[in-house]
Amino acid sequence: MLAGLRRYDHRLTRRIAAWDHPWIRTALPTAQDAAEHTLLWWGAAAAVAATGGRRGRVAAGAGLAAMGLAEVLSNTVGKQLVERRRPPKEWIPNEEVEDRPTSSSFPSGHTAAAVAFAATVAVVSPRAGALCAPAALAVALGRVHSGAHYPSDIAAGGLIGLAATALVLTGRHRATRRWR
To answer: Per the UniProt record, which residue ranges are transmembrane (predicted)?
Structure first.
């Protein structure tokens, strides 16, 4: 069964990396560049906090907390537990194949951060979350398209992001109840 999943993961990687529509060749690398060092999410947090009133400030703060937790879980814990090579360069027909990280492929820290931020913001402020979700999806797909990750790395990063969201929101809820 694991061999079958691995073959499917490899086939899907090749298929996504081969997407050649001009919009995809522009949008996915742009989203990835913006997400480097979590700049996209810091900018989104500033915008949500500035325009969303009290709810926006809470959403931005919770989103940044979840993003930070997801990064720790994926990059500090996950990548140390699972060493996985990046997809072979021969599978990636675009020029971004040279810009790949050298760390473990599993899990995707970019995806974990993106999902954690977008999901947390969406729970606190659904409108703001709806604006963040497409960017998070573009970051995740861009990681496969550029050859940095396999789809299973993205799925694991997404699960870590959702776990970080649950932990931050649960902690926030408990802290709020305690102060009342």
So the answer is: 113-142, 154-171
> What domains, with CATH codes, occur in the chain?
2-179 (1.20.144)
Torsion angle of alpha carbons 159, 44, 167, 80, nearest 10°?
Answer: 50
Contacts of 55 (CB under 8 A, 6+ apart): 124, 125
Using an 8 Å Cβ cutoff, are 97 and 148 in contact?
Answer: no
pTM: 0.89
8 A C-beta contact, residue 111 and residue 157 = yes
Using alpha carbons, list the distances in angstroms from residue 79 to 11, 72, 93, 103, 169.
23, 10, 26, 8, 25
Torsion of CA 145, 151, 153, 156, to 10 degrees: 130
DSSP-derived secondary structure letter, 142: H
List, for residues 89-144, the tens digit of each pLDDT value: 888 776 655 666 788 889 999 999 999 999 999 999 999 999 999 999 999 999 99
- Contacts with 131 (C-beta within 8 Å, 6 or more apart), sequence order: 44
CA distance 145 to 100: 11
Cβ atoms 70, 164 nearer than 8 A: yes
Q: Which residues contact 109 (CB under 8 A, 6 or more apart)?
A: 70, 71, 74, 75, 78, 79, 157
DSSP annotation of 29 reads H
